[in-house]
Amino acid sequence: MDYTFHWRPVFRKLPDLLEAGLVTMEVAVLAMLVGVVLGLALAVMRMSGSRALTWFPVVWIELARNTPALLQLFFFGFGLGAFGIHLAPFLIVLCGLSFNNAGYLAETFRGGFNAVPPTQIRAARSLGMTQTQAYVRIVIPQVLRVVYHPMTNQMVWSVLMSSLAMLVGFRELAGETQFLASKTYRIFEFFLVSAAIYYVIVKVILAGSRLLSWRLFRY
Amino acid sequence: MDATSVFTDFQFSDVGFLLEAAGRTLLISLLAISIGTVFGCLFGWVLSVAKTAGEVTLGLILDVFRSVPLIIQLILFYNFFPIIGFNLSPFAAGTVVLVFYTSALVAAVARGGIDSVSISLRRASRSLGMTYWQDLRYVVCPIGLRAVLPSWAGVALGVLKDSALVSVLGYVELLRASQILITRTQEPFLIITVVGAFYFALSFPISRLSARLERRWQYD
User: Fold this and answer.
1) A interface with B, Cβ–Cβ below 8 Å
2) Which domains does chain A have, with CATH numbers?
3) Under 8 Å between Cβ of B72 and A195
4) In this predicted model, what pLDDT tens digit does every residue of A24-39 receive, in sequence order?
5) N or C end of chain B: smaller count of CB under 10 Å?
6) Is the pLDDT of residue B189 over 60?
């Protein structure tokens, strides 16, 4: 083994890497929020039963789940150029990740809503609750319990997928790492530290999710 | 387009190039999924047998592969092998990393499958005179397999799609082929659509099949 590790350049750039880690979290959380909203809309459209409405979510969901996330990013990055739309790197990443998250979450939400039998809504209505009350007090809490764990997983995937941003020129953690590594030629050292930061981010999310679930599901 | 242009249009022969690349995507993912599944089942079994000891050793290592983005793992290992004296081709390095990654994901699935078989059922089989291995083969396997086959199919599909990331090492699979064609033809939309259709054609049948199996086994 005639390779000498040089850690100094990495430690000198550690603040930059940590800052980039924050950018990773930002973009992953944003993509998750947009994904939840779009995913809910897709799930509701798919469950509406009307033929005219169902094809759209079905196409979206199948495309999001059956093609690589990287290809989806490239579509928003380069493919849209054919129509004269040129997005900024941040928007490419946000659109690509949100598209992917929404496709997966729509199926999660559909499963969650299917897990609550419709007789419960009728029972709630016959007890004198309004439709809104029935949803807010009876259906949503049960759905939340079913979808909570898959949503946590999706959040982790959102962070892991955001690393693809380095291939479309956005400097979040992976992109910043590549940028610094190619400037100093300490590729292995930089990516090892970056891997450690990703690991910590994922663990923080999982711990946060567990704390929140204790608070949410006390009964 | 004039004759002196460096760019040429998308031609019919390019479909052959893409098919060849799709073959490479299929090859590397089949290798990763088959070898990774064998290792993953082994690791899953170890995790379910050696509860705490397995968790703090093997479990911790496998957890790293699940918590670090695959693209970082690929670059890291591709640059690590020469340090310890191996010069691996992009294909070999990509396969090794994908096998690690797959086995880490499958281990969690396999462990869940083994744990889904109730302990009283296993005690019953042992008290009927089955050996440990007979119990594993004739009781745990059939029941556990049904419980986790959909999740395993999910992992396999994920690996098939994630194999696109091996393109960063320079292995010319489907995604890399699309980038080469985009550079030559300057028609990104067309090529991304065609390549997307290729991935869809590989992935969609498997996801349908697993959904069907899941439904059928539920009613058995």
Assistant:
1) 1, 3, 62-63, 65-71, 74-75, 78-83, 156, 159-161, 163-164, 166-167, 174, 177-178, 187-188, 191-192, 194-195, 198-199, 202-203
2) 19-214 (1.10.3720.10)
3) yes
4) 999 999 999 999 999 9
5) C
6) yes
